[in-house]
């Protein structure tokens, strides 16, 4: 009778642990898919300034970031699927493998979080330098392959009603104008579809785009950081609960023989 009672208590614990594990594992999968989507967005979307700026030239920063996110997201999706099977079927070898992958992903996520904080300023500086480079190259007929970047810069200036990174005077650096007084048509309310326009300086957008660009950059860094921290917290619960489930499953297999 005591053995049966113990077995019943263990089964109740197992069912409760399986329920919470499946909930946290679902949350873990959702966060992993977010990372995967973030990586796909960076590598495939050619309508956002960050992707276009860093997908050309010698700087391979975008490729490294997107590959890392795609890799981690894929491993999380695989680990989560394996976890669901191990939890539902109470397969001990799958539970051990699941915890091993969780620890591996946990260490990787910690490394990503450290990299975000260490490299954030460096990436931000590269981002600003690349924008300055685009402004100096803008309209150069020998760099026709850069037109997608210029079009996105135009769209940003026109939609945000800003001009240059810090203000309109930055366009004085550009040597591809017919005369020194010209500025991009996107720095005005003009709807002309050409690179430069002859307009009075007082009819241009005076504010620079830096504030908008910094807000966009900080927002995306914050999203990535929030996803990473959420994953770390979720994994702590998952590793703890999986260990408890493994022990109780082992006990459940012992009691019937006593």
From TrEMBL:
SUPFAM superfamilies: Tetraspanin (SSF48652). One of its GO terms (cellular component) is plasma membrane. Belongs to the tetraspanin (TM4SF) family. This is Tetraspanin. Keywords: Disulfide bond, Membrane, Transmembrane, Transmembrane helix. Coiled coil: none annotated. The keyword Disulfide bond applies. Disulfide bonds join 163-185. Pfam families: Tetraspanin (PF00335). InterPro entries: Tetraspanin/Peripherin (IPR018499), Tetraspanin_animals (IPR000301), Tetraspanin_EC2_sf (IPR008952). It is found in: Membrane. Its main location: membrane. The chain crosses the membrane at residues 20-41, 61-88, 95-118, 221-241. It is a multi-pass membrane protein.
């Amino acid at each position: 009778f005591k053995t049966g009672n113990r077995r019943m208590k263990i089964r109740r614990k197992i069912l409760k642990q399986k329920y919470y594990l499946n909930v946290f594992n679902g949350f873990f999968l959702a966060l992993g898919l977010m990372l995967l989507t973030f990586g796909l967005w960076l590598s495939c979307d050619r309508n956002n300034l960050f992707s276009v700026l860093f997908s050309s030239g010698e700087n391979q920063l975008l490729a490294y970031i997107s590959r890392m996110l795609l890799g981690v997201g894929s491993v999380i999706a695989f680990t989560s699927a394996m976890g669901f099977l191990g939890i539902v079927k109470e397969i001990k070898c799958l539970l051990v493998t699941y915890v091993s992958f969780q620890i591996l992903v946990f260490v990787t996520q910690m490394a990503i979080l450290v990299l975000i904080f260490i490299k954030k300023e460096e990436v931000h500086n590269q981002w600003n330098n690349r924008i300055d480079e685009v402004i100096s190259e803008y309209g150069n007929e020998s760099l026709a392959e850069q037109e997608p970047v210029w079009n996105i810069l135009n769209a940003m200036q026109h939609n945000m009603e800003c001009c240059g990174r810090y203000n309109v005077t930055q366009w004085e650096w550009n040597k591809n104008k017919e005369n020194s007084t010209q500025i991009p048509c996107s720095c005005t309310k003009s709807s002309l579809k050409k690179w430069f326009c002859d307009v009075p300086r007082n009819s241009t957008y005076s504010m620079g785009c830096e504030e908008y660009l910094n807000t966009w950059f900080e927002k995306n860094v914050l999203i990535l950081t929030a996803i990473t921290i959420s994953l770390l917290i979720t994994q702590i619960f998952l590793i703890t609960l999986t260990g408890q489930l493994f022990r109780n499953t082992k006990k459940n297999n012992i009691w019937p023989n006593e």
